[in-house]
Design goal:
Elements lengths: L2 H9 L13 H17 L6 H8 L1 E6 L12 E6 L2 E7 H9 L11 H21 L3 H4 L3 E6 L2 E5 L3 H15 L6 H10 L5 H24 L1
Parallel strand pairs: 1-3
Antiparallel strand pairs: 2-3, 4-5
Helix pairs in contact: 1-2, 1-7, 1-9, 2-7, 3-5, 4-5, 5-7
Protein backbone atom coordinates (compact mmCIF):
# COMPACT_ATOMS: atom_id res chain seq x y z
CA UNK A 1 0.00 0.00 0.00
CA UNK A 2 1.39 3.38 -1.04
CA UNK A 3 2.34 5.50 1.98
CA UNK A 4 1.29 8.70 0.20
CA UNK A 5 -2.18 7.31 -0.41
CA UNK A 6 -2.49 6.18 3.22
CA UNK A 7 -1.31 9.62 4.31
CA UNK A 8 -3.99 11.27 2.20
CA UNK A 9 -6.57 8.90 3.71
CA UNK A 10 -5.56 10.26 7.12
CA UNK A 11 -5.75 13.87 5.91
CA UNK A 12 -9.21 13.21 4.49
CA UNK A 13 -10.44 12.79 8.08
CA UNK A 14 -9.68 16.44 8.77
CA UNK A 15 -12.77 18.64 8.96
CA UNK A 16 -11.10 21.14 6.62
CA UNK A 17 -9.72 18.64 4.12
CA UNK A 18 -12.10 19.91 1.42
CA UNK A 19 -10.52 23.36 1.77
CA UNK A 20 -7.10 22.18 0.56
CA UNK A 21 -6.55 23.18 -3.08
CA UNK A 22 -5.98 19.96 -5.02
CA UNK A 23 -2.66 21.17 -6.42
CA UNK A 24 -1.34 21.50 -2.85
CA UNK A 25 -2.27 17.98 -1.71
CA UNK A 26 1.22 16.57 -2.47
CA UNK A 27 2.81 19.28 -0.34
CA UNK A 28 0.69 18.45 2.71
CA UNK A 29 1.29 14.72 2.22
CA UNK A 30 5.00 14.78 1.46
CA UNK A 31 6.06 17.36 4.03
CA UNK A 32 4.05 15.65 6.78
CA UNK A 33 5.58 12.28 5.94
CA UNK A 34 9.07 13.79 5.76
CA UNK A 35 8.72 15.44 9.18
CA UNK A 36 7.87 12.15 10.87
CA UNK A 37 10.54 10.16 9.07
CA UNK A 38 13.28 12.70 9.77
CA UNK A 39 12.43 12.76 13.48
CA UNK A 40 12.62 8.96 13.61
CA UNK A 41 15.88 8.81 11.67
CA UNK A 42 17.44 11.06 14.31
CA UNK A 43 16.57 8.33 16.84
CA UNK A 44 17.47 5.34 14.66
CA UNK A 45 18.14 2.17 16.62
CA UNK A 46 16.60 3.49 19.85
CA UNK A 47 14.02 1.45 21.75
CA UNK A 48 10.75 3.27 22.30
CA UNK A 49 10.52 2.17 25.95
CA UNK A 50 13.99 3.57 26.62
CA UNK A 51 12.96 6.84 24.98
CA UNK A 52 9.94 7.05 27.29
CA UNK A 53 12.11 6.44 30.35
CA UNK A 54 14.74 8.97 29.31
CA UNK A 55 12.07 11.58 28.52
CA UNK A 56 10.32 11.04 31.84
CA UNK A 57 7.02 10.02 30.23
CA UNK A 58 4.95 7.75 32.46
CA UNK A 59 3.14 4.83 30.83
CA UNK A 60 -0.07 3.79 32.54
CA UNK A 61 -1.76 0.64 31.31
CA UNK A 62 -5.49 0.25 31.95
CA UNK A 63 -7.87 -2.58 31.01
CA UNK A 64 -10.12 -0.44 28.79
CA UNK A 65 -11.30 3.07 28.14
CA UNK A 66 -14.02 5.02 26.40
CA UNK A 67 -14.03 8.53 25.04
CA UNK A 68 -16.96 10.78 24.24
CA UNK A 69 -20.04 9.30 22.55
CA UNK A 70 -18.91 5.78 23.49
CA UNK A 71 -15.88 5.80 21.17
CA UNK A 72 -13.40 3.11 22.18
CA UNK A 73 -9.93 4.57 22.79
CA UNK A 74 -6.56 2.85 22.51
CA UNK A 75 -5.02 5.43 24.79
CA UNK A 76 -4.59 9.09 25.44
CA UNK A 77 -1.70 11.39 26.24
CA UNK A 78 -1.39 14.16 28.80
CA UNK A 79 1.41 16.58 27.95
CA UNK A 80 2.03 19.44 30.35
CA UNK A 81 4.72 21.22 32.35
CA UNK A 82 3.58 19.28 35.40
CA UNK A 83 4.47 16.01 33.70
CA UNK A 84 3.78 13.85 30.66
CA UNK A 85 1.83 10.63 30.75
CA UNK A 86 0.44 8.20 28.19
CA UNK A 87 -2.46 5.94 29.12
CA UNK A 88 -2.77 2.73 27.12
CA UNK A 89 -5.95 0.65 27.10
CA UNK A 90 -5.01 -3.02 26.87
CA UNK A 91 -8.34 -4.29 25.56
CA UNK A 92 -8.31 -1.89 22.60
CA UNK A 93 -4.65 -2.56 21.79
CA UNK A 94 -5.33 -6.30 21.81
CA UNK A 95 -8.34 -5.84 19.53
CA UNK A 96 -6.23 -3.87 17.07
CA UNK A 97 -3.54 -6.55 17.15
CA UNK A 98 -6.05 -9.36 16.62
CA UNK A 99 -7.53 -7.69 13.53
CA UNK A 100 -4.36 -6.17 12.03
CA UNK A 101 -3.42 -8.92 9.58
CA UNK A 102 -4.21 -8.92 5.89
CA UNK A 103 -2.82 -9.11 2.35
CA UNK A 104 -0.71 -12.09 3.33
CA UNK A 105 0.70 -10.42 6.45
CA UNK A 106 0.22 -11.97 9.90
CA UNK A 107 -1.47 -9.89 12.59
CA UNK A 108 0.60 -7.85 15.00
CA UNK A 109 1.32 -9.22 18.44
CA UNK A 110 0.05 -7.27 21.45
CA UNK A 111 3.61 -6.05 22.10
CA UNK A 112 4.00 -4.82 18.51
CA UNK A 113 0.67 -2.98 18.55
CA UNK A 114 1.56 -1.53 21.96
CA UNK A 115 4.84 -0.16 20.61
CA UNK A 116 3.11 1.31 17.55
CA UNK A 117 0.82 3.28 19.83
CA UNK A 118 3.68 4.42 22.06
CA UNK A 119 5.75 5.55 19.08
CA UNK A 120 2.82 7.52 17.67
CA UNK A 121 2.31 9.35 20.95
CA UNK A 122 6.03 9.94 21.36
CA UNK A 123 6.05 11.98 18.19
CA UNK A 124 3.35 14.22 19.64
CA UNK A 125 5.57 14.56 22.72
CA UNK A 126 8.39 15.73 20.44
CA UNK A 127 6.03 18.31 18.92
CA UNK A 128 5.05 19.47 22.42
CA UNK A 129 8.69 19.66 23.48
CA UNK A 130 9.55 21.72 20.40
CA UNK A 131 6.57 24.03 20.93
CA UNK A 132 5.32 23.65 17.38
CA UNK A 133 3.29 21.03 15.55
CA UNK A 134 3.83 19.82 12.01
CA UNK A 135 0.40 21.24 11.15
CA UNK A 136 1.61 24.69 12.20
CA UNK A 137 4.55 24.47 9.80
CA UNK A 138 2.38 23.83 6.76
CA UNK A 139 0.34 26.49 4.92
CA UNK A 140 -3.01 27.67 6.18
CA UNK A 141 -6.15 26.94 4.22
CA UNK A 142 -8.72 29.63 3.56
CA UNK A 143 -11.97 28.73 5.29
CA UNK A 144 -13.94 31.90 4.57
CA UNK A 145 -13.68 34.87 2.21
CA UNK A 146 -15.95 37.88 2.72
CA UNK A 147 -15.50 41.43 1.41
CA UNK A 148 -11.77 40.93 1.00
CA UNK A 149 -11.37 39.38 4.44
CA UNK A 150 -10.02 35.84 4.70
CA UNK A 151 -10.34 33.46 7.63
CA UNK A 152 -7.62 30.83 7.71
CA UNK A 153 -6.95 27.62 9.64
CA UNK A 154 -4.52 24.72 9.92
CA UNK A 155 -4.92 21.14 8.72
CA UNK A 156 -4.38 19.48 12.09
CA UNK A 157 -4.30 15.97 10.66
CA UNK A 158 -0.87 16.74 9.21
CA UNK A 159 0.49 16.02 12.68
CA UNK A 160 -1.23 12.63 12.66
CA UNK A 161 0.35 11.76 9.30
CA UNK A 162 3.75 12.73 10.69
CA UNK A 163 3.18 10.62 13.81
CA UNK A 164 2.29 7.63 11.62
CA UNK A 165 5.47 8.14 9.57
CA UNK A 166 7.52 8.44 12.77
CA UNK A 167 6.16 5.15 14.13
CA UNK A 168 6.66 3.42 10.78
CA UNK A 169 10.29 4.52 10.47
CA UNK A 170 11.32 4.04 14.11
CA UNK A 171 9.79 0.55 14.30
CA UNK A 172 10.65 -0.56 10.76
CA UNK A 173 7.03 -1.15 9.69
CA UNK A 174 6.31 -1.98 6.04
CA UNK A 175 3.66 0.74 5.71
CA UNK A 176 2.02 3.58 7.59
CA UNK A 177 0.34 2.10 10.68
CA UNK A 178 -3.05 3.65 9.91
CA UNK A 179 -3.38 0.70 7.51
CA UNK A 180 -3.87 -1.44 10.63
CA UNK A 181 -6.82 0.75 11.55
CA UNK A 182 -8.44 0.05 8.18
CA UNK A 183 -7.74 -3.67 8.51
CA UNK A 184 -9.40 -3.57 11.92
CA UNK A 185 -12.48 -1.87 10.44
CA UNK A 186 -12.61 -4.37 7.58
CA UNK A 187 -12.10 -7.44 9.76
CA UNK A 188 -14.74 -6.38 12.29
CA UNK A 189 -17.28 -5.48 9.61
CA UNK A 190 -17.28 -1.78 10.46
CA UNK A 191 -16.14 -1.00 6.90
CA UNK A 192 -16.85 -2.90 3.71
CA UNK A 193 -14.15 -3.92 1.25
CA UNK A 194 -16.02 -1.94 -1.40
CA UNK A 195 -15.93 1.22 0.73
CA UNK A 196 -12.22 0.76 1.45
CA UNK A 197 -11.34 0.25 -2.20
CA UNK A 198 -13.47 3.27 -3.08
CA UNK A 199 -11.58 5.41 -0.56
CA UNK A 200 -8.20 4.24 -1.84
CA UNK A 201 -9.25 4.86 -5.45
CA UNK A 202 -10.49 8.35 -4.60
CA UNK A 203 -7.24 9.26 -2.83
CA UNK A 204 -5.11 7.86 -5.68
CA UNK A 205 -7.11 9.89 -8.19
CA UNK A 206 -6.75 13.04 -6.08
CA UNK A 207 -2.97 12.69 -5.95
CA UNK A 208 -2.73 11.88 -9.65
CA UNK A 209 -4.87 14.92 -10.45
CA UNK A 210 -2.69 17.12 -8.26
CA UNK A 211 0.47 15.94 -9.98
CA UNK A 212 -1.06 16.63 -13.39
CA UNK A 213 -1.92 20.17 -12.34
CA UNK A 214 1.65 20.71 -11.21
CA UNK A 215 2.95 19.57 -14.60
CA UNK A 216 0.59 21.96 -16.38
CA UNK A 217 2.09 24.98 -14.61
Amino acid sequence: MDDRVLALCELSNDMLFHKIPQAQLPQYVDESLAAGKEAAQALAGRDILDLYRESGIAIQEKPSGKGQFGVILRGQATLSKEGCQVEVYQESIQALADHSGGAGEPPLSFEEAFRVHLAHEYFHFLEYQRGKTVAEELPDVVTLTFLGFQRKAKINRCSEVAAHAFAQTLLGLPHLPNLYDYRYLLDTGAMTQEAFEGLIGKMEAALDGAEEKKEER
